[in-house]
Every structure is written in C-alpha cells, then in structure tokens.
Amino acid sequence: MSRDEWQCPASELAMKQFDVASAKLNLDPNVAARLRRPGRAMIVSVPTRMDDGRVHVFTGYRVQHNDVLGPFKGGVRYHPEVSLGEVSALAMWMTWKCSLVGLPLGGAKGGVACDPAELSRNELQSLTRRYTAEILNFIGPEVDVPAPDMGTNEQVMAWIMDTYSQHKGHAVPEVVTGKPVAIGGTHGRREATGRGVVYMITEAANYLGIGITGCTAVVQGFGNVGSVVTQELARLGVTVIGVSDRTGGYFDAKGLPVEKLLEVADKNHSLEGCTYGEMITNEELLELKCDILVPAALEMQITEENAGRLQCRILAEGANGPTDLDADSILAQKNVFVIPDILANAGGVVVSYFEWVQDLQNFFWTEDEVNKKLRDILTKAFHEVLNLSLKEDVGMRSVALMIGIKRVATAMLWRSLYA
Ligand code: NAD
C-alpha cells in the first residue's frame, strides 16, 4: 500500500494535533511513536448485488487505533469520500475522546465509500451485511464494538447485530451500540450526541456569563447530531437563525421554525424543498453573526481561509475535526470560546458505553437515568478541561487532547511492551 492512502486533510490534522499535544506533555518518544499509528487497519471489498442485477464492489474499512483502556469503540460512516486516511483520523480521535471522558474503551472507526442516499433499502442491507461479514472476525463485544456515524443509523446497526448474531448462532446485542431499543438498544442513544453538545454549550455560556435564553445559533448539518442540537437549543429559548445540510443553507434573522424544519427533514430525508428562510450557501452560513455556531457535518469546515470571518462567541464542535490547526490560532485571537470535538460530541460514545453496559448486564435503565449520568460525566469533563486550560493558559482543544493522550500513555507504560 502506498503511503498516500493514509494521507488526507483529516489524517494530517489528527497527526498535527497529536504532535502539538504530545510535545506539550513531553510524552515518552517510544509511546508517541506507537500512538501516531493505528494498531490495525483493514481494507475490505464489499461486493453487493444491486437492484438491477449487477454486482458492485464497494470498499470498506475498519481501523482500530488503540485498545489499551478497553475494547475498541467507534462508529461506521457511509459517505462517498470515506478513505483509509479519514477513517484512521477518526479512529485516533475516538481513542482520545473515550479516554478524556474516562470510559474503559479504546478508539476505532469504520466506513464504506458509498452514497447511502443513492442506494435502495435492499442494496443498503446487502452492503451492510457483507461489510459486517468481512470484518466479523475482528469485532465482538470484548474486542471492537461499532456504532452509528454519518450516513448510518439504528437500522444499519440492527443489520450489523443480526449478521453477527446469525454467524455466532445466538443473539449478541452487545456487539454494536446505537441499535433500536426493541433489540437491546438504550433509551436516549439517538439523541445523546446532540444533547451532549447542548449540555456543553450551556456550561460554556454559564462560564462566559451569557444567558442562554435569547442567544442566537447557527447549525451546519441537519442529521442525527445537527437536528437534535437545533431542537434542544430551541427548547432552551435559543433563536436558531441558520441551518444547513448537503442541499444548502437556510437563514432567517428572526428565527427559523424548528419544528417545521424537523418535519421537512423527516419527510424528505434532507432539507431539500424547505421553504422557510432565505437560501444561502454552507460557506455563508458559517460566517453568520450569531452567539453559538455548531458545525455538525464534515471535517475541515473552518480553516485559515474563513476563520477570520467567523462571528460567533461559542464554537461547539458537533462534527469530528471541523476546525484545522491554523484556524485554531485565529479563533483564539478573536476570543471565540471553542468546545473541541472530543469533548463537545462525546455524548454519543458515553451513551453507547451505557448501552454496552446494559446489554452485558441484561438490565436496562430509564431515559432519565441515562440523561442524568450523561450530563454528570460530560459536565465533569468540561470543568476538568476548562480548569486546566485556565491554569496552564493553553487552549481548550490542546488541553482536552493532552488529558486524553496522557491517560492512554500512562496505561501503556504500566502495561509496557509485549515483545
Ligand atoms: P448524519 O448522516 O445523520 O447527518 C449528516 C448531516 O450533514 C446531514 O444533514 C447531511 O446532509 C449534512 N452534510 C453532509 N455533507 C455536508 C456538507 N458538505 N455541508 C453541509 N452539510 C452536509 O450524520 P451525524 O451522525 O449527524 O454526524 C455528523 C457529524 O457528527 C460527523 O462529523 C460525525 O462524525 C459526528 N458525530 C456523530 C456522532 C453520532 O452519534 N452520530 C457522534 C459523535 C460525532
């Protein structure tokens, strides 16, 4: 395999972030050398019978970065741009995220390069079952537990769980999280990432002395994360003035009708055909004047090129890797309060952990219990990062990475090297 296959903007960003944080930590160079690379990376062919009888061979990936703290954990992404480099970056971020919020889990990520919007239900099911079969020997409740990410949902998780269970000869709900409640999913998982983002925004607003009610917000991406963030912010009395998805952006300075947007998205599986507000581009959306900006779509949306034009007070990263390293210093100069991805969107993996624990115990919790435990874990992590950031005068992102990396490095040194 050529080195180029590992390289993409997201993997370069993940490496640069790691290098900066590990230098600040004075990390043992032997540990750093190992943590720069994933433990294992798989590329699989996923032959799928299409509705017209043709067989199309998709490319799938599963990258397992580090499992020193516990089984690998990470989502599965279906998107045309999925690559080995992108999945590797996302896997590395999962390691730091699980560690930062204190979960006994490692980091992994998977994906298939495909456009789920172009596939029929049958094609999506065939692709998912074959992808699962190809990685079956490398996943499992004690080994590696997949979950949803962009382009996948609870139905895809149900097919993964069923395929794995058919091969084992009995039901194994704990092999995957983010599945429907009817087959061992947990209450509150679908909303967990977006809800967690809003818990973190609330903590940031309190710290900054901004009353959340009456704030304005802009959300990029209107899928699992973005739509829940929008709904939860509106519930708190925030005026949502801009939203977008892959079909474009919608803006109304007086506030968009959130419930109506949710109805459109539910019916059309996107915001296409939305008649509310004025249509703008995704680029224009990010530059709207607002109190709270939430990127909840793809990586590398905020760069050196546009960071100077952002006009928000709080940037809460629902997406993974939406801001590049050069943009970080520009945002710091502009005094934007950044809630970094590995903290802001950690609610998803926290409730995935709760789901795994409930499945292993065969004992299920109420949604109130889930939400309370989620809020406690995230709030504790937020204040740990904020306090250290103030004490050391280092940005929130670097501190979050430093805490995450340090716990993993400490565990590695205790366990030492098997040779
Ligand atoms: P999703 O597939 O449910 O939704 C993605 C949304 O982004 C859709 O509305 C899509 O139209 C939009 N989008 C795609 N390309 C776009 C573009 N170029 N410009 C603007 N919008 C675009 O995915 P999701 O699960 O909501 O994930 C969104 C982000 O959140 C990803 O970065 C993902 O890694 C991250 N994340 C998700 C979870 C989770 O639990 N689902 C957890 C942590 C982090």
| CATH third-level topology of the largest domain | Rossmann fold
Q: How many structural domains can be distinguished in the coordinates?
A: 2
CATH architectural designation of the largest domain: 3-Layer(aba) Sandwich
What is the CA–CA distance across the termini? Answer: 25 Å
Mean of residue pLDDT?
97
Question: How many DSSP H or I helices?
Answer: 14
H/E element order: HHEEEHEHEHHEHEEHEHEEHEHHHH
Poorly predicted regions are none
Indicate the overall shape.
Answer: globular
CATH superfamily placement of the largest domain = Leucine Dehydrogenase, chain A, domain 1
Briefly note the structural class of the backbone: alpha/beta
Biggest beta sheet attributes? 7 strands, mixed
In total, how many beta strands?
12
State the helical fraction. 40-55%
Ligands and ions found:
nicotinamide-adenine-dinucleotide
CATH class bucket of the largest domain:
Alpha Beta
- The strands making up the biggest β-sheet line up spatially as 9-8-7-6-10-11-12
Strand content: 15-25%
Radius of gyration: 20 Å
Tell me what you see in this structure.
This protein is α/β, with parallel strands linked by helices and 419 residues long. It folds into 2 domains: 3-14 and 37-174, Rossmann fold, CATH 3.40.50.10860; 190-339, 3-Layer(aba) Sandwich (Rossmann fold), CATH 3.40.50.720. The chain contains 14 helices and 12 strands. The chain is globular. The two termini are 25 Å apart. It binds nicotinamide-adenine-dinucleotide. Residues 148-151, 193, 220-226, 244-246, 270, 282, 296-298, 318-320, 345, 348 line the site of nicotinamide-adenine-dinucleotide.
